[in-house]
Amino acid sequence: MTNGQFMRLQRYLSLCGICSRRRAEDAISRGEVLVNGQRAQLGMLIRAGESTITFHGEEIRLPKRKSPTVIALHKPRGYLCTHSDPHHGDGKTIYALLPLHRQRKLICCGRLDKNSEGLVLLTDDGSLAAALLHPSRGIEKFYHVTIDKPLEENHQRVLRAGVEEGGERLTLHSLRVLAKCQRQITIVLHAGRKRHIRRMLGALGYEVRQLIRYRIGSFGLGTLPPGRHRRLTEAQVAALLQNPDRLTDSFRTP
To answer: Which fold is adopted by the domain 140-216?
Structure first.
């Protein structure tokens, strides 16, 4: 809830942490709440930040909203993007690379499989996580991929058209061959399924030897070392949501 927005007085009192809405209604009925110096009425609307609310003679205000935490982590190969290994319980997870006080609070925004590496974003804000993941935002994911043999030209056309695998239609946004040996490629995805790239290439007989996500939207992995993390600034998060197709920042080691 933000300042300037209309809400019922009892809800305002509840959001301020004074009491429950039910108890707030009782307090209003007993005349214990004033709005701009006048006795409040049950059910009245107030505008947060523009009305002076007092309870038992003390002015109360909405607590300042804490800015969401967004962490960029360079996931090493061999780590799981989960809080615990669902199969054996002893696998290494990315949360072990984070401070203890953040491990249980952070949501992974777009996982990488165990054998993949690169940029992972995590946040403690569920709404922000949903925004970063939703295809409508157009936040693209960029990958460097090394395969076991040269990528044939006809297979390049097949990949760009999309592949049926496991009952799903898997597509990519773009594909570019990087090296003359045609074993190194860049792939860009709008939205990814589980093991998306490996499944597409595997359906055509290729094995992925290395897969690195080096960019998400406007942010590049830069020189952030494997296993290390950085916290994004508010400006960086805003740029990620507002300018997802423009590379505005990369992480560099001090």
So the answer is: Alpha-Beta Plaits (3.30.70)
